[in-house]
Input
Amino acid sequence: MTAASPSPSPSALLDRPQDAPGARAEAPLTLDTAPPRTLGFKDQFALWANLGISLIGFTSAATVLGQPGSELSFTAATTAILVGTVIGTAMLAVAALIGARTGAPAMAVLRGLFGTRLSFVPTVLNIMQCVGWGVYELIVIAWGAQTVAGTQGWRWLFVVLAGALTTVLTIWPLGSIAALRKYVAIAVGVTMVYFTVQLGRQGFPDPGAGNWKGFLGATDAIIAVSISFVPLAADYTRHSRTPRASFWGTFSGYTVAQVWCYLLGLIALLQSNGKVDNLLSSFSGVAAGWAFLLVLVLREADQSFANVYSTAMSVHNLFPKVDRRLLTGGIGLLVTGLALEIKAFTASYYNFLGLIGAVFVPLFAVLAVDFFLGRGRQGWDMSQDAPSRPVMLLPWVLGFATYQFLAPTAITGWWTDFWTHLQTLVHFTPQGWTSASLFSFLVAGLVTWGITRLSPAA
Output
C-alpha cells in the first residue's frame, strides 16, 4: 500500500502496557492502553487460516452450488469460490492493515471515521452480529460433536464444554493465537489433506455440467463470507508487528483456507446428493473419519472465540474502562446460555444477520477511502472526545440502500415489498450481473471520495 501511514492519536493510546519481567505480553485490559505488538506474519497467517476453515464453511458450499435442478457446474462453482475469495479477502486484508496502522480495535477505529458518538451506531450492530454468530458456532460445534459421537443426545454437555473452551480462549487472546500457530494449524492442515485425499478418490457427480447461470450470485455469496470478518479484523491485527505482516498474513492465510474449505465442502455436498444435513456424514464415513472430524469440531472453537472476543472489543468502544476479562467472561456465559436454549435459528434470524452483514460492505468502502484518500492521511482522532462527522454517514447510507435495492433482505414482508416496489417504479429487474456487494461498495466508495475532494475538512 502506498498511502502514508497515519500515527495513532496520542490521546487515543495513553499508556504502554506494563508487563512483569519475562512475562508474555497479553492484550490490554482497557481501551486506553496501547496494545503489545507481538504478532508476526506466521501468527496472523495461522489465525486467519484457521478462521477460514469451518464446519459452517463446509455446509455453506450449498450457497455456491445453487438449488437442485439449477446447480452450477463444478468448474463454475470453483471459479466463483476463487474469484469471490480473492475479492473479499482483499477487503479483509485492507481492514487488517488499518488495524495494524492505528493500533485500535475495529469499532474504536470508527471513531476516526464518524466521531465517538456516531461510532456507537455500527458498534451496536456489530455486537448483535457477533453474539448471533457466537451462538450459532456453539450450535454447530454441538452438532459436529454429536456426529462424531454417533448420538442425538448430550447436546447440552457439548454446548457447555464448547462455551467454556471459548471463554477460556478469550481471557488470553494473544496466547490463544500463539497456540493456534504452534499446534492447531498443523493438526488442521493434516486433517484437511486427509479428507481431500479420501473424498477426492471417491469421485463426485457434476449435476450442473456446463451451467454458469448464477455465477455472479455465487461469487457475491463468497464475497459476503469474507466481508463478515471485516468488522473484526483490527481487533487482532492491532497487535501486528508491522502493517505488512498484517496485510499479507491475513490475505494469504484466509484466501488459501477459505478456497480449500469451500472446495472440500462442495465435493462432500455433491457426494451427499446436495443434502446439507448429510454432509458431515461424508467426512465421518471415510476410514478413521471420526477422528479427523473431531479435530475440526474442536478447532471450531476458534470461530466462537473470535466472535465472543470481538463482541467484548466492541463493547469496549462503549465502555472503555471496563476490564475486558469481565466482558469476555460475561459474554461467554451469555452466548452459552443462548445456545442451550436455541436449537436452530429461524429463517428470519438468518436474514437478520444477513441484513447486518450488508451494513458492513458499504461501511468498509467508506472506511478505506477516507483512511487512505481522505482525512486519515493526516491522522484520525480516535480519542474519547473525537468530534462527530455526520457527513460520512451519507455514503454509508447510500451504499446500504444500493445493496438492498439490488438484493432486498427478506427480514419482513414490508421491508422486501418496499424495495421491490421501488424496483418496479424505476422499471428495474435484477440481473445476474448485479452484484449487491460490489455495487454497494462502489457507490459508497465513490461518494466518499467525492466528499474528500469537495470538503477535505469534513
User: Anything to note?
Assistant: Residues 131 and 215 are 31 Å apart (CA to CA). Residues 116-149 form the longest helix (34 residues). Residues 1-23 have pLDDT under 50 and may be disordered. The two ends are 24 Å apart (CA to CA).
